[in-house]
TrEMBL record, chains A, B, C, D:
One of its GO terms (molecular function) is DNA-binding transcription factor activity. CDD domains: WHTH_GntR. The keyword Transcription applies. Residues 12-80 form the HTH gntR-type domain. It holds the Pfam family FCD. Gene3D superfamilies: GntR ligand-binding domain-like, Winged helix-like DNA-binding domain superfamily/Winged helix DNA-binding domain. The keyword ATP-binding does not apply. Keywords: DNA-binding, Transcription, Transcription regulation. InterPro entries: GntR_C (IPR011711), TF_FadR/GntR_C (IPR008920), Tscrpt_reg_HTH_GntR (IPR000524), WH-like_DNA-bd_sf (IPR036388), WH_DNA-bd_sf (IPR036390). This is FadR family transcriptional regulator.
Length: 238, 238, 238, 238
């Protein structure tokens, strides 16, 4: 499989930029839960962008559960991400982090399913070692994003398909960035949240160990989806 | 989302190499449908590789439907890819092509689902234009892999998530390579097969146009899975 | 597994009734493609029902792709089911038929996946026999719903899980009814549509024969989803 | 949708009977983790059944993760269900309970997805009320299967598709039976396990409240899959 090369990074989408600016106002509290957003037309004027750009930003904010459209009435702020989010991540990164989750759910779900079918006992041992490492680091409340990435990488490796590993590595910076954000929130969270994060990883490992592809796919997708929710919702399992 | 960079291509997995060599024997007819493969132990000796390498190659051959294991009896050749396959692709590429399909099914399925939810009317127009292009090229029985890639790229673009586009582009060479193989087989095939390939693309477009995310996901996954089967099975819908 | 008993049929949901009445107007042409529907408030008054009932009916019409909501503007007829639909089915049945498809997609998809993993060679033979029967009946342009049901029942049987068979049988009347409608439309359709219907069934059989659970799930879900679309859309693959 | 009637219960499959008898030996400890099972041929003679019946029972035991086949070597006991299982359920019911889970995963996953798209605020309120009820009962360590069923029924109701409700009700006895078993195991388990069971239900509710169909589908499938695992594996999250 020759030819796995990446195009130079294209300029950020206008929709993502507008998304970031509205998100910043939600995180800062300038827009509060329940507040109505300006109309499409007003947003076009305020930010000097075209209608499709406004629509794309609105759709992404809805997709992330941050705003909700009520038919015939307008669009309202639905939830506010955790306080320290912008401090940790920078508003401009949040759009990237959330788009990255959209990709990881199907990609890593499939990798986990293949790993359940194909892993050698050596590969399973490496997943277990990464899981134990992650447990130690998280319990110590130390920075866990490297250990977290190592676990996900070991699962991809066990899929016996190099392309899953290559893509995960190409997303390395974006993923560790999002993990740092999610785990930071966890670190500031309760003991219960920490136990949940470890529990989710254990479930993935167990399904792969049992050779149950459907359960592995499900456990991985569930885990990544939950991580995504932890970023956008400050009320999630405090 | 900074940091989307790819590691230098790592050396080919030993399992993939062994896979390629056994596949070559199946395509050449040295191993025929129904023939029993040498045992794990014999394969270790013949190819001077370790047991895990043999197991990985066997698992991938099974995953691709080329061989089948009968418990307590051994492993047998189940189907033979189309005659001209090696001529078109080179045995060493086939493993890469088939692994690439494993990745594309979940990845492009998700992109199609997001496109159904988010596409602007301009983006929908671009998908339609790419579909019409593909129809013209295929009907003319000309080389269609560029037009085929353009269709899939337009769907990824309509997901409003740059990362799907970036990954598709990073796989550009591998995907066009596999499309060339699949479409070549189609070109040599019946009118019926050509109609099916176009039909599959139309279904994806229609589901996205209707805004039906589940149907779009399903139609895309079905299409890519069928393309994969066309490569490994010469009896498929001749 | 004792205790599989059905409650007496509950009275039809008001939402389904309203759905049926609006559908009837779309099929009869009283409401044409592109026409705007009355507002929620007007529909409440016209049909003397509460707002939640109107919302439920609207949501179901949208889910079936028959109407589309344009934000801030209203709800419009998007497509018109095939002409003879009401004649064949009776407007009051259409809601039931389309709700039945919603159930069959996940249910029979899973049954097909389990069949790919578990079928004995005898069970596979019965699926093949049912497929051949269906081919004969459809080619003869005779009434094919019994043969169609027999194919789906044979797949459920091969899942080695009696509960899939029991539920399919409990839905027997509803399923054969919807098959009669879909196949009638097919019978009046082109040769190409007939070939497609047979092709979809062949794909399911082949995936089960190959033992490929994911492909079997996909092929079954795709087939049932297409059948659903054939009922609501007169433009589908004529 | 007339005609939703169930055939009289058919006699238990021979494969399920054999499954029950082997399971009984695993639960009783007559067969221990790591023990090798008799060969197919020996099982045919021991139980006076045909080869396909033995194969079906073996496949179901593998599907449930109770035994594992090692190629060229034989089939071994992989895990032992919790001690009190037979006492609570009776060996003859376990096969039925586990087959019921296979059905519920796709069925209730889809119902949850539809509920996320369609629920009225009244229906959402009923799901919340059922969740609160379940919390009270479980915290009090009282029998929770009726409250558990009520939660799942409220989700099905919110799908706005009566057929999901009808099928759930037709499975009422089988589902409450399996819930009683799973919750009994939970009741005897740690505080942590109780928190997890409630947490899983909260996730389903939250995804439906947010209108996120994919997350609701995922959370429901994950929950039912975990419940299934709790029944077969005594080591699961003690």
């Amino acid at each position: 499989m020759a030819g796995l090369t990446l195009q130079p990074k294209r300029k950020e989408r206008l929709g993502d930029q507008l998304y970031g600016q509205i998100l910043e106002q939600i995180v800062s509290g300038a827009l509060k839960e329940g507040d109505k957003l300006p109309s499409e037309k007003e947003l076009c004027l305020m930010f000097e962008v075209s209608r499709p750009v406004v629509r794309e930003a609105m759709m992404l904010l809805q997709a992330d559960g941050l705003v909700v459209a009520r038919q015939g009435s307008g669009t309202y702020v639905q939830r506010r991400p955790p306080q320290g989010l912008i401090a940790i991540a920078g508003a401009s990164d949040i759009a990237g982090i959330l788009r990255c989750y959209e990709l990881r759910v199907p990609l890593e779900g499939e990798a986990a399913a293949l790993a359940a079918k194909r892993r050698s006992s050596e590969q399973l041992g490496q997943i277990k070692a990464a899981l134990d490492d992650l447990g130690r680091v998280v319990e110590a409340r130390a920075s866990a994003s490297a250990a977290d990435f190592a676990f996900h990488r070991a699962v991809a490796e066990a899929s016996c398909n190099e392309m899953f590993v290559s893509i995960l590595e190409s997303l390395h910076a974006a993923i560790e960035n999002s993990m740092a954000v999610a785990l930071n929130i966890t670190r500031e969270g309760s003991d219960q949240r920490i136990r949940r994060v470890l529990d989710e990883h254990s479930r993935i490992y167990e399904a792969i160990a049992m050779g149950d592809a459907d359960a592995a796919n499900l456990a991985m997708r569930y885990h990544i989806n939950r991580a995504r929710q932890r970023i956008t919702d400050q009320h999630q399992d405090v």
